[in-house]
Design goal:
This protein is mostly helical and 118 residues long. It is 45% helix and 7% strand. It has three helices and two strands. A two-stranded parallel ribbon has the order 1-2. It is elongated.
Amino acid sequence: MLASGQCTKADLCYSLQETVFAMLVEITERAMAHSRSDQVLVVGGVGCNLRLQEMLAIMAKERGASLCATDDRYCIDNGAMIAHTGNLMFQHDMETSIESSGVTQRFRTDEVHIAWRS
């Protein structure tokens, strides 16, 4: 397509961004439905993207939910999300010993018991 002049590099990049962001919004909406959540918190590096924030805001509004997009100071990594989750776990007496903790590359978040949602 680029070689034939059917589209520009900018058009191709925009199309790719829109497709990826649409997928992220769909996954987020599905997660909200499964967890019965009415809130979305977007953090991390990709959270800085204003177009993604706009798309998430539209989805949240259509669901009667709220979107919190943190400012750029907190969008450099997932530290705020990890800290918030740790605080929720602490409030619900959930502990993980150092010995039983570790990294699971293919961690299934849909198989995790979330005590504060029970």
